[in-house]
Amino acid sequence: MKIGVAGLGLIGGSMAKAYAKSGAVVYGYDGNRVVQDFARLQGVLTGELNRETVGECELILVALYPQVSMDYLKEMAPYISKDAMVIDCCGVKSGICKVGFALAEEYGFTFVGGHPMAGTQYSGFAHSKEDMFVGAPMVIVPPRGDDILLLERVKTLLAPAGFSHLTVTTAEHHDEMIAYTSQMCHVISNAYVKSPRAQMHKGYSAGSYMDLTRVAWLNEHMWTDLFLENRDYLLRELDLMIGYLGEYREALAQGNGDRLCTLLAEGRICKEKVDAE
Fold first, then answer.
1. pLDDT score at 121
2. CA–CA gap between residue 53 and residue 151 (Å, rounded)
């Protein structure tokens, strides 16, 4: 198999390493030439992904920032083989899928939106791992959700990454869910560590502190793009959270133990229901 990986950060770098380990020929591109050369020196890349080599690829994985991914696809689309499948790895889907589906129809290749549900709080090729996706789910947004042959092809092409299963959805539903399951977690964590007490936590913190603050260590440039791209859904979740926090604050300010206990019980019950599913 010959594949191309555009963007050699944490996600793209991990994809490149996984496919290289499987024996695939991997062409790669990164906006930072030093990273691209380093990946080649490590033996991860066979060569550069460019207008000449992209046409050889059966699978092209685009792991760039959302707007950069759209621009990259527009530039490379005329050179992609009609037999190829392009899967993006962006954290939001509506914008990239709109562009990808249109380009695929115009130039004859297949485009599928994708979001690998794995990662760490760190970024960059240096932190990428060949087993990053082993056992992890992969969300995909196909042109049609009922095209069984296409879904089987996606499953086969992604097999070297080691995903446990595919979650098939629409771009809109993906973005709605990701605003809650991922983006809100990063906003809350990032805001939480701004307390002056964060600088004095040692000796006073344990697992709950570590759990809540882990993703505060983020790539601010990437997450700014993701938040703005998905701002409508994210704003809705933020407004809900601000409302809930206001309820806790009001109960505390009034010294209303019954109300506070009720709020805490509601949250516990919600968690029990989620874990029981």
1. 77
2. 26
